[in-house]
Amino acid sequence: MAAEPDLVVRARRAIVDGEERAVAVEVTGGVITAIHAYDADVEATHEHELADDEVLLPGLVDTHVHVNEPGRTEWEGFASATRAAAAGGVTTIVDMPLNSIPPTTTLAALDVKREAAQGQTWVDVGFWGGAVPGNVPDLADLHGAGVFGFKCFLLDSGVDEFPHLEAHAFRTAMAETARLGALMIVHAEDGEAIDECEHGAAYAGFLESRPGEAEERAIELVLATARATGGRAHVVHLSASGAVPALHAARAAGVDVSVETCPHYLHFEAGSIADGATELKCCPPIRDATNRDALWAALGSGDIDMVVSDHSPCTAELKRQDTGDFAEAWGGIASLQLGLPAVWTSARERGVPLTDVVRWMSTTPARRVGLTGKGEIAVGADADLCVFAPEESWTVDVTRLHHKNPVTPYAGRTLTGTVRATWLRGAQIELADDPRGRLLRRGDR
């Protein structure tokens, strides 16, 4: 006789198989073992029923998070980042290899990173490796140790510990990732198209210094290199919609490339950014409203695959809010806890259904990076769940965020959609309890 399930979660509204329907989700040992009709006669040790204004979502999967520990833990750390993730409905993150000291570019550095994270993660955490000049011999060991792929820059990364790859070195590294079958994820801006002149507090000057052409040229290099090596590529944080036609054509021709954008590119637009508002500095930059509309259209057409945070926090001092100097301020936006409501607020205004948001922010990221058993409410998947109230509006109070530093461009803004609970492997995450997150390796189940 089969064992009685540990848990049944009943929801009149749930996102399952790309559609919204009423279900009873059966969980045993932290894994979804059956999906029944909402009113099915199922007995379990525990039962939880969602309120009428709540929707059951799969836990979000954020594959672009800068945790910064060890080395720059005053910017963010595993404890604060994963608490923020849990509060925002995110149940799995993948940590970027730069900004920590040492960066994750060798097997020894990965061991240091995993040791730093051990025992202080409220959600599950995977790791990217880094591709930098001279470390091609290290990529196979990192791949064997279970990193989810390799991050590289095509221009100065902003930190000395993680130098960028010139075109010839990029091709050499991507030939190796192609041999390994690994994903190469690329910060695609062409440094020669960027004017690093002093632009002070004027946002227009900062925006002009990093034109869309810089992304378009770099993405052409990524596509040509993927085509030449047969490698798998992923373009991170797409800002310039002008690159979409080239991406579309390359995929139509069989190039294995995917692309992400971020909540801030979908929520904000350059015309409403005040001079000196350095909390909105990121690279590549937030562009105009027409460009924003084009990014939304590309998501709708499938030319942009996913939406992830690019959570890139820093201390308040590094944002230079005292001077408002865009030239000196750190480029990065803290939004890990706020990604779902930020995207949903804009999606709802545009008539985009919640099913699309779930696909962009949960299912597709998990599938692209090989996070088996994540990103969907399905039999055999981990019971990672988000309880979301999509009609509830609220105002962002930075003092109630779990990010280590209270700097975010969403401060004081009204968003729609509240995360009321987050479940990891069938148990609700309580931030007052000990953390239960696991450190993941590629291919884990």
From TrEMBL:
GO molecular function annotation: allantoinase activity; cobalt ion binding; zinc ion binding
GO cellular component: cytoplasm
Biological processes annotated in GO: allantoin catabolic process; purine nucleobase catabolic process
Names of the cofactor(s): Zn(2+)
EC number(s) stated in the UniProt entry for this protein: 3.5.2.5
Pfam families in the record: Amidohydro_1
Top-tier EC class: hydrolase
Family in the record: Belongs to the metallo-dependent hydrolases superfamily. Allantoinase family.
Assembly description: Homotetramer.
Database matches in NCBIfam families: allantoinase
Record's protein name: allantoinase
